[in-house]
Amino acid sequence: MGPGPVNVHPRVLRAMSADMLGQFDPEMTGYMNETMALYRRVFMTENRWTLLVDGTARAGIEAALVSLVEPGARLLVVQAGRFGLLLSEIGQRIGAEIRTLDIPWGEVATLEQIEAAIVAHRPQVFAAIHGDTSTTMAQPLDGVGALCRRHGVLSYVDATATLGGMAVATDAWGVDVVTGGLQKCMGGPPGSSPITISDRAAAHIMKRRHVEAGIRGADLDEGPGALIRSNYFDLAMIMEYWSEKRLNHHTEATSMLYAAREAARVMVEEGLEARFARHRAAGAAMSAGLRAMGLTLYGQDACRMTNVTGVYIPDCVDGERVRARMRGEFEIEIGTAFGPLAGKIWRIGAMGYNAMRHKVLITLGALDAVLRAEGYVPPAGAAIEAARAVYDRS
């Protein structure tokens, strides 16, 4: 019950046990097409280029940035937590000129602040984190895509921590590229990064197109743009691998494709609105239960992620001892924190297969018991009753 990875849905585990298929086997390419269609629904988009990047969520982030941002071009990043800092670091490594919109941890950027930064810095690409698990805050993104288009800027959003648990409204936001991961709200294992790419961004990426010498044919033209500085994360080649051309790029991670496909099938069968409501209820119940213990939540309620809750560690207890006892006595993991929040808050997740009433109640009951054993005595039974009340209302 930490900020991820979380327990994998049993259907996803079973799907991963299926045997291998050749990468050009018609059954395999059929699964690839099905996966593209499923993730259009997950990303709430009509984007043709909706596919998987093999690797954990960071692989999708790096593929997006290295393929969008040309060497020497300007990248504007919202830095409001650990993962905004990560975007800047990746940008530096690929030779981008970094500009930042610095927001205090626990807060989010306003649309006015974003526009002012775009006007001031004139970037080629604007990048932001939707839900940053280091701060448990969700950045509002309504209007960001239209703003970027108005100023001729490409937009990128990392939705690793929210995809499958909160609405990642790609088309409604109007953003160009969004990436995610399986290991959080999607209820899968780490190892595959879903990505969706607008036609506008695809055209930009294809201008940087370069085909490996060993598979290049006379019918494949080079793009006039700067070479993408990675072979593995070259989205132009990955897109052609997933297209009708099936231009060979890498050996597809077959078991991870099975996992990604099944995770999306589970989500679509549940229904997006029902799934988002399940995560909202779990997050609200967890928050209510923690507050009923007399604990203080971290960050702003208005922008709190539904699937991860930050809570201050009481002064009278050792946060790591509490985590160790939760794990040792109850087999429940809760998260520590990073950077300026290290040792100050716990991050407690309720996402994917774990965003369930009984798991929230068990976690709150276990934390109550451990805190009592460590010398912090919450009001008896208050956490469970407060969480139950939230569930009853929902």
| H-E string | HHEHEHEHEEEHEHEEHHHHEHEHH
Order of strands in the sheet with the most strands?
1-9-8-7-4-2-3
The mean pLDDT is 96
Molecular shape:
globular
Which structural category fits the helices and strands? Answer: alpha/beta
Range of strand content: 5-15%
Summarize the biggest pleated sheet.
7 strands, mixed
Count of individual helical segments: 14
Helix content: 40-55%
Count all strands and give the number: 11
Cα radius of gyration in angstroms: 22 Å
Alpha-carbon distance between the termini? 21 Å
Low-confidence stretches: none
Describe the structure.
The protein is of the alpha/beta class and 394 residues long. 42% of the residues lie in helices and 13% in strands. The chain is globular.
Walk me through the topology.
Layout: H1 10-16, H2 26-42, E1 49-54, H3 57-68, E2 74-79, H4 82-93, E3 97-102, H5 111-121, E4 125-129, E5 131-132, E6 137-138, H6 144-150, E7 154-158, H7 170-173, E8 177-179, E9 192-197, H8 199-206, H9 235-242, H10 254-270, H11 272-292, E10 308-312, H12 319-330, E11 345-349, H13 357-373, H14 382-393
Parallel strand pairs: 2-3, 2-4, 4-7, 7-8
Antiparallel strand pairs: 1-9, 5-6, 8-9, 10-11
Helix pairs in contact: 1-10, 2-10, 11-13, 11-14, 12-13, 13-14
